[in-house]
Structures are given as C-alpha cells and as structure tokens.
Q: What sequence folds into this?
C-alpha cells in the first residue's frame, strides 16, 4: 500500500472561526460538491477542501491505498497549509476519511461530521464489482446510476445548473484512481473504532439516500461517546448540494468559533 498525494484547495479564506477541512464524495470534486454550502459557512470559518486521488486537483494513482493512508495524506496536506486545529466534515467516502483523520489525530480535530456516510459503506464484493466495471467501461458509465443515487427525485430537473456539472465532473475522473477508491472502501471497516473517538461525532443523513439506512446512521451516532444525529428531509446522497442551508446550519451549531 502507498500513501497517495492528496491536494488541498482553499475554498474560503474569510471568517475568524475554527477552520473547516471538507471532504468530497466519491466521484466528485470537492470545490464543486461543497459550492452550494460554502456561502453559508464562509463568513464565519476559513474553509479548505481536499480531493480524492485522481479527482479534482489530486494526482492520479496506480497503486492501491487504504482509507487510513488517505487520512494520513490529508493530514500531511493540512500541515502544508499550516492548519493546526480544525473541524473535519466529509460526504460519503469523504466522511469515512474524516473519521479516520479524527481517530489518528484527536488532538488536532475539534469535531467530526460524517454526511451520508457510515464507518462501513457497502460490501467488499459490491465495491470490487464497481471497480471492475470502471476499469472496463470508464467513469462515464457511472453517470446514470450516480444521478439516481446522488439526487432525490426531481432535483436534476429543478436544478440542472447545479446537478449537471457534478455529473460532468464524474466523467473526467481518472478511471484507475476511481477503481482504487472503490477497493479502499471495500477494505474499510471502522465500526468497532467509533467508540474510540474522543471528540464529538455528528452524523447527517439524507432522508431518501439509497446508499445507507437511517437506522445505521443513527446507530453510528449512538455508538460514539458524544454523538448527534440529524436527518435532512428530502435529501439524497449529496445532501450539501441539495440542502446546503440545512447542512451548513448543523455544521455551524457543532463547531466552536
């Protein structure tokens, strides 16, 4: 296994509060997937985002890596921009990496938010199948299925200028890097480690997210020493895109200035 090269993007430099380090969902660029929520956070907190391997500004990879190694790379990138203590929040795979970051550096993290994410996502077999599919057909083959998972019914028609660029970004992601992300997800299981988290854990779930159940999300928050659980009505898997004000309000309530 190898530690990938993860790159950060400054998303908002104003605000005097605690910095946020934001993570993306698999198949998205962090600057795009957090763009709708950014205005609600930027006045109070500096915002930085990181991209998965082969996504956005992070270079493509050919070697396997683990979620823990992505977390290590995220912390190195935070060091490079001088982040000392900060809050972490991420969507789906980004939420799982955020949990791993908090577990590995609890003295630096003030709170952790997992959005449409669980400490164990899917099955190893399911992720292996998707990795094989991407290697055979490329990320453009994922657009239709991703549109159905990412957005609640009617959202694409109602907000095409928000949804369409996200789906276009998916087609530009490096195929092998995406497949390696799938394999990292297939091997990741943090369910027994949630109770070890010494800082607050917030779990946000989309009401109609087909990727995970509300019961599993609530159980994750309940397993933490200090946990809270929130459901975003009418949202699917990319809740910060569909309901940015609601997600941002939860983040602001959980993170000290």
A:
């Amino acid at each position: 296994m190898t530690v990938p090269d993860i790159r950060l993007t400054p998303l908002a430099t104003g605000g005097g509060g605690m910095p946020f380090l934001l993570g993306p969902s698999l198949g998205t660029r962090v600057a795009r997937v957090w763009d709708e929520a950014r205005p609600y956070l930027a006045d109070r907190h500096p915002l930085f985002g990181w991209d998965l391997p082969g996504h956005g500004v992070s270079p493509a990879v050919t070697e396997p890596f683990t979620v823990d190694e992505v977390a290590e790379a995220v912390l190195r990138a935070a060091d490079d921009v001088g982040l000392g203590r900060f809050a972490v929040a991420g969507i789906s795979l980004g939420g799982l990496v955020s949990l791993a970051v908090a577990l590995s550096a609890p003295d630096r993290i003030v709170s952790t938010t997992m959005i449409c994410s669980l400490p164990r996502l899917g099955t190893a077999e399911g992720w292996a199948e998707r990795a094989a599919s991407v290697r055979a057909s490329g990320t453009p083959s994922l657009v239709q299925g991703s549109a159905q998972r990412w957005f609640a019914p009617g959202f694409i028609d109602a907000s095409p200028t928000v949804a369409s660029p996200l789906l276009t970004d998916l087609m530009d992601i490096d195929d092998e890097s995406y497949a390696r992300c799938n394999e990292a997800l297939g091997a990741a299981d943090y369910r027994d480690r949630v109770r070890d988290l010494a800082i607050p854990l917030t779990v946000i779930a989309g009401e109609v997210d087909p990727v995970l159940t509300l019961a599993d999300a609530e159980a994750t928050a309940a397993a933490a020493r200090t946990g809270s659980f929130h459901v975003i009505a009418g949202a699917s898997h990319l809740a910060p895109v569909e309901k940015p004000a609601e997600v941002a309000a939860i983040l602001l309530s959980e993170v000290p200035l």
